[in-house]
Write a structure and sequence with these properties.
Strand content: 25-35%
Order of helices and strands: EEHEEEHEHEEHEHHEEHEHEH
CATH class of the largest domain: Alpha Beta
Largest sheet: 7 strands, mixed
Distance between the termini: 56 Å
Number of strands: 13
Radius of gyration: 20 Å
Number of helices: 9
CATH architecture of the largest domain: 3-Layer(aba) Sandwich
Number of domains: 2
Length: 301
């Protein structure tokens, strides 16, 4: 493949670019320039303004530019890189760093992608798309759940991002309906396997715990009751209404792509994650342990 980066100029979005207006995670780029680094509409790219100012974006629009190497962003997207102005940049096809440890990523403010998977099992996958300091504790929850259910067969995919001094969310967050496997090679290994169950741990700024996804109501109700039991009434737990914000029921959501009609998205307030992340994880594990055990073949002996 040709070079994985190119020099570009970030310029203001046009008023007709509706997918860019008000979107801090979106950009547009010339399709020829993108193709040269193996990227296209819908993929994620890394945009670097300086050695300290860089972030990942979804290419929500492509347009042929009179100068090929133009990337367009609305104000909110430029502000993620610390400026309201136009600027020179480097566009990088690499989103997550594939060669460093978690400790190294934390020290230098990087993003890493992790997968634990045997290449074949299709019963349960647990994910944390926004781990590290993007949505703290969620990756630890995914790893703990996978460990608790290891005897039943489980895969685990996480992305972990950091930024020294804070701001990991602004640098690394991509909404779950837009995560593209072309930009996350470990996700690409499992995205089409069609797991029986999938569960995603998330954090949000609300005050409760929200159970969403495309899974049947009975599954979500069971998870709700298990989490309520460990929170003891101090933090509300509820099931999302269809199409409400954070409902997680869009079929494009990565958790629903992994387990069509059986994805569960768990959005958690900061207090819930900080104080009860282990208890919440164990409650969720108890639900899936029962469901996985009930579907396992029984010994003839």
């Amino acid at each position: 493949m040709p070079g994985r980066t190119y020099s570009a100029r970030v310029e203001r979005a046009f008023s007709v670019q509706s997918t860019l207006a008000g979107h801090g995670e979106h950009c547009s780029a010339d399709p020829t320039s993108l193709a040269a680094i193996g990227r296209a509409r819908g993929h994620q790219i890394r945009v670097r303004r300086s050695d300290r100012a860089y972030a990942i974006y979804t290419v929500s629009d492509v347009r042929a530019e009179s100068t090929d190497h133009v990337v367009r962003m609305a104000l909110a997207a430029r502000e993620r890189l610390g400026t309201t102005d136009e600027f020179d940049t480097i566009v990088d096809a690499r989103v997550a760093n594939p060669t460093i440890t978690d400790a190294e990523a934390e020290a230098c403010g990087e993003l890493v992608e992790r997968l634990d998977d045997d290449g074949a099992q299709h019963r349960l996958v647990v994910i944390a798309p926004h781990g590290g300091m993007i949505e703290p504790y969620t990756d630890a929850q995914a790893e703990r759940l996978a460990s608790r259910l290891a005897d039943h067969g489980v895969s685990s995919w996480r992305c972990k991002g950091w930024r020294p001094g804070g701001g990991a969310y602004a640098r690394w967050h991509i909404t779950s309906t837009e995560l593209h496997e072309a930009s996350f090679p470990l996700l690409a290994r499992i995205i089409d396997r069609r797991f029986t169950y999938a569960v995603a741990f998330h954090g949000f700024e609300e005050a409760d715990v929200l159970i969403g996804g495309t899974a049947p109501l009975a599954v979500k109700q069971e998870i709700k009751e298990a989490i309520e039991a460990v929170l003891g009434g101090g933090i509300a737990v509820r099931i999302a209404q269809h199409n409400e914000r954070y409902a997680g029921d869009d079929p494009r959501n990565v958790v629903n792509r992994l387990a069509p009609d059986n994805g569960v998205q768990i959005e958690q307030a900061w207090d819930a994650r900080r104080t009860y992340w282990q208890a919440i994880t164990d409650a969720v594990a108890s639900v899936y342990a029962r469901r996985l055990a009930s579907s396992e073949p029984r010994s003839a002996g």
